[in-house]
Amino acid sequence: MPSTEPTFIAKYALETVPRYTSYPPATKFRGGTGLDQWRHWMGQQGDAPALSVYVHIPFCKSMCWYCGCHTTIPNGHQRVRNYLAALDTDIKRRAEIAPADARVCHIHFGGGSPDMLKADEFRTVMRRIRSAFHVMPDAEIAVELDPRELDQELCQAMAEAGVNRVSLGVQDLSEEVQKLIHRIQPRETVQAAVEQLREVGITAINMDMMYGLPAQTVRHVCDTAEAISEMGADRVSVFGYAHVPWFKKHQRAIPEDRLPAAAERFDQMQAAGRALSKVGYDRIGLDHFARPDDPLAQASRGGGLRRNFQGYTTDPSTILVGLGASAISECPQGYVQTEPNPVRYATAVTGNADMLVRGTERSPAQRAVATRIADLLCHFETRLEPADRLDRIADMVEDGLARIDRGRIILTEAGRPYVRNLAARLDPEFRFSTDQHSVAV
Ligand code: SF4
What we know:
Strand order of the largest sheet: 9-10-8-7-6-5-4-3-13
CATH architecture of the largest domain: Alpha-Beta Horseshoe
Number of helices: 14
Number of strands: 20
Low-confidence stretches: none
Bound molecules: iron/sulfur cluster
Shape: globular
Largest sheet: 9 strands, mixed
């Protein structure tokens, strides 16, 4: 009888599978899908669709060695100003081709570090978005923040502009780990940021933590989870460090001999989950946690949980307009991505050229697969379809990680950490031998 406790199984933990933040995955995006295609798709939306806006700020004050984001360290603030001038035009162009009756329910600033914007700059961007789009009075307006860089003036500007949720990057609170990842941020710094935000009335606070960092141990992960709970985070995301130094060159500064082995990573991931559950968080999908009264936990219980590029969300929108360099836009018909290089992005936008450089159309069959994969990632089960290749999931069933019951395929408790492996097996386009992705755990 297989154990119900998840255990490390190298065969699955080391399998390289898509993250499935989109379907088809971003690795399938190709050139030739641009503004004309997006305009065409926007003409096919229903009445008064819910719309989400994502704004990418691709700048940081200094580089964290573990970073996997699209960001740069600008040589002076003029580069940020140039970028914001282009973003201004981008907002107008994209709003002009969005459905005129679309209602904006969510706005999310990510990066990079959106706190690289000065208070007035943040106010201006929000003003432009509000005048270009129809932003609902109860829209969620969320910003990712680096706790090291917050100042009171920006906090005040964010509150006045309607920001009502923030995500603080915490990662790990041990000094040794922080030195090795080039991000010195003692607990007091995070605590001070939380207090600053609360003072201006921004009280919905998410925190991100990581496992798999150099010199990190189960103890470090548990201590960080405990501190995050004490600081009062409503939601916590737990991400595994993806070491890809051939792709992200600054990661070469991470000492590889200090990285935990795959089995230790697994133990850290499990320990984080146990520590957060013990102090009262509900587990949401694969890697998020929320207080039971938080809307994300309520959505998870009530069936309204969704998944997008930022992870698990309550956002009901069918259209995502991605603004800024590297941002991805989504609608039922497909995806488009803007030019990732901030300078080339700004040149394209201000030169009235196409800043959308790649993407993919999504067929009705692919939409159906996307729905099933989202079911799996949000609720750990989905219906079995006649076209499913049972031989592709046989190993996970035999290993006690999944079971088939009354026309549904269900992850067992032991199988939940391997949900992406099951998704890959149900993805008719995924080829284990050739597709390049990150390890599953
Ligand atoms: S603050 Fe975030 S986006 Fe910026 S370098 Fe560090 S990890 Fe990357």
